[in-house]
UniProtKB/TrEMBL annotation:
Organism of this sequence: Fulvimarina uroteuthidis
HAMAP family listed in its UniProt record: Maf
Record bears the keyword Cytoplasm: yes
Record-listed E.C. numbers: 3.6.1.9
The protein, known as: Nucleoside triphosphate pyrophosphatase
Catalyzed reactions per annotation: a 2'-deoxyribonucleoside 5'-triphosphate + H2O = a 2'-deoxyribonucleoside 5'-phosphate + diphosphate + H(+); a ribonucleoside 5'-triphosphate + H2O = a ribonucleoside 5'-phosphate + diphosphate + H(+)
Catalytic residues of the enzyme: 76 (proton acceptor)
Uppermost EC category: hydrolase
Length: 199
């Protein structure tokens, strides 16, 4: 067993998922700049799910350097429409353009999780959810964003499925935890197998 579990994330949602699952952990955000890590990957043929994996590993390795002997959980998520990768919108106009692009399309949420011990990746997993968005009227998009407010800027794609963003969807193929950004069932299985949590 490790000295303890550290979640390398500032995400309130990921912290809440682990806490609600009964996992004893501490949390510490990574110091890496995700866009700096991602920049050299553009045009390299790396898939959106691989980008999520690389970012999750980078975060966990960074935090692991400050916590020797601790098991560090790293997680990241990308939203992809074909080969296009979306990020959190910087402003309402970016959110509007993202929703217009996703309207009537099936996009993917690629959620990666890794375990790192003393700077070495010892386990990795990626889950993918497919979400089909309704064909959205531009006027509705404007009203939706006005109602969602600044919360629309805190998630890739400009929506939060656990809030009014569910109204944008026509169909979902994938589990809730993958959509929120932490493939919880595979993670819990691995933590049990390693004796980190009771099982």
């Amino acid at each position: 067993m490790s000295k303890g579990i550290v979640l390398a994330s500032s995400s309130v949602h990921r912290r809440e998922l682990l806490k609600n699952a009964g996992v004893d952990f501490t949390a510490e955000a990574s110091d890496i700049d995700e866009r700096d890590v991602e920049a050299p990957l553009k045009g390299s043929g790396v898939s959106p799910d691989e980008i999520a994996q690389i970012l999750a590993e980078a975060k966990a390795v960074d935090v692991s350097e400050r916590h020797p002997g601790h098991l560090v959980i790293g997680a990241d998520q990308t939203l992809s429409l074909g080969d296009q990768v979306f990020h959190k919108p910087a402003n309402m106009e970016e959110a509007r353009r993202a929703l217009l692009s996703l309207s009537g399309q099936t996009h993917h949420l690629n959620s990666a999780v890794v375990l790192v011990l003393d700077g070495a990746v010892i386990w990795r997993h990626t889950s993918i959810a497919a979400l089909t968005m309704r064909k959205l009227d531009p006027g509705f998009i404007g009203r939706y964003l006005a109602h969602a407010g600044q919360k629309a800027l805190t998630s890739v794609g400009g929506y939060q499925i656990e809030r009014e963003g569910i109204q944008l969807m026509e169909a979902i193929d994938g589990d809730y935890f993958t959509i929120i950004g932490l493939p919880l069932l595979p993670l819990l299985k691995e933590l049990r197998a390693r004796g980190e949590i009771d099982g």
